[in-house]
From TrEMBL:
<dbReference type="InterPro" id="IPR003754">
    <property type="entry name" value="4pyrrol_synth_uPrphyn_synth"/>
</dbReference>
<dbReference type="GO" id="GO:0006780">
    <property type="term" value="P:uroporphyrinogen III biosynthetic process"/>
</dbReference>
<dbReference type="InterPro" id="IPR036108">
    <property type="entry name" value="4pyrrol_syn_uPrphyn_synt_sf"/>
</dbReference>
<protein>
    <submittedName>
        <fullName>Uroporphyrinogen III synthase</fullName>
    </submittedName>
</protein>
<feature type="domain" description="Tetrapyrrole biosynthesis uroporphyrinogen III synthase">
    <location>
        <begin position="46"/>
        <end position="257"/>
    </location>
</feature>
<dbReference type="GO" id="GO:0004852">
    <property type="term" value="F:uroporphyrinogen-III synthase activity"/>
</dbReference>
<dbReference type="InterPro" id="IPR039793">
    <property type="entry name" value="UROS/Hem4"/>
</dbReference>
<dbReference type="GO" id="GO:0005829">
    <property type="term" value="C:cytosol"/>
</dbReference>
<dbReference type="Pfam" id="PF02602">
    <property type="entry name" value="HEM4"/>
</dbReference>
Length: 274
């Protein structure tokens, strides 16, 4: 004979696993969400958070990177004794370093044993994987890293950068009298051939570069619902005439998922067909 499931007489929260009833269930997303970013990890944490809400999610990179260290880099690396530390502010710079200084290189140990100043945990992790000594990841931004470098007084620096690097760090070093040699080891370029699903869909922007890539690829922003990872990106979208339906309260996967979920649950704004 079929028996009904037992229900505890204790007053468990109605939405808890111990309750036989559930009211006001979390709104589930039925829409497609495009994350305009390169996936980081398997799965990407933002993709994982949104898929957990029921959305169909895809990561679409908007930038491409060309790692192409110039001959100058080899020349300077051969002068290891003249430098006290390295500076690598992105994983791409570390990738160029790994290409130029593999473990079997005669000068690998000389450089790997020097401090490598970095911004953020991803670059620090890339330096560790190479076998180097990441320093300054906890600084959080370029200005704070510059203060750390000046305080450490490591001597002459070899700074590996990209073509779109910001001026904050080198300008602060120059103003503090810190000597360094900078070599551009990679180039960042905008993708102009990204593919997006047909509306209705959400586009989640992580930087103004995503806006440029969508425009350059021939898509109209107003055909999609737009979400931004923060206020700066939201402002850039509005400057382009786009309507921003959701803004994450903090730059985290859960905050972005919550922002989109709350908008859909309210019914106030949804992607619309062209």
């Amino acid at each position: 004979m079929w028996a009904a499931p037992k229900c505890s007489m204790a007053f468990a929260p109605l939405n808890s696993p111990d309750s036989c009833f559930s009211i006001l269930p979390r709104a589930m997303m039925a829409d497609s969400v495009v994350l305009l970013r390169h996936p980081r990890g398997t799965p990407d944490p933002y993709e994982h958070a949104l898929a957990g809400e029921g959305a169909t999610v895809q990561c679409t990179p908007v930038l491409a990177f060309d790692i192409d260290p110039p001959p100058t880099l080899s020349v300077l690396l051969n002068r290891a004794a003249a430098y006290g530390a390295l500076v690598c502010t992105s994983p791409r710079a570390v990738q160029a370093l790994r290409q130029a200084l593999p473990p079997d290189h005669p000068l690998y140990a000389a450089w790997a044993n020097k401090p490598t100043y970095v911004v953020g945990p991803r670059t620090a992790g890339a330096v560790s994987e190479w076998g180097g000594q990441p320093t300054g990841a906890e600084a959080g931004d370029a200005a704070a890293l510059a203060d750390r470098i000046v305080a450490d007084a490591p001597g002459r620096l070899l700074f590996l950068s990209g073509n779109r690097r910001r001026d904050t760090l080198p300008r602060a070093l120059v103003e503090a009298g810190q000597v360094f040699d900078e070599v551009e080891v990679y180039r960042t370029r905008l993708r102009s051939n990204i593919t997006l699903p047909d509306p209705p869909a959400w586009l989640a922007f992580f930087s103004p570069s995503g806006i440029e890539a969508v425009r350059a690829s021939g898509y109209a922003l107003d055909a999609y619902a737009c979400a931004a990872i923060g206020s700066t990106t939201a402002a850039a979208l509005r400057d382009e005439g786009a309507s921003v339906q959701a803004v994450a309260a903090s730059p985290t996967p859960d905050a972005l998922a919550a922002a989109i979920r709350d908008v859909q649950a309210s019914g106030q704004s949804r992607p619309s067909s062209p």
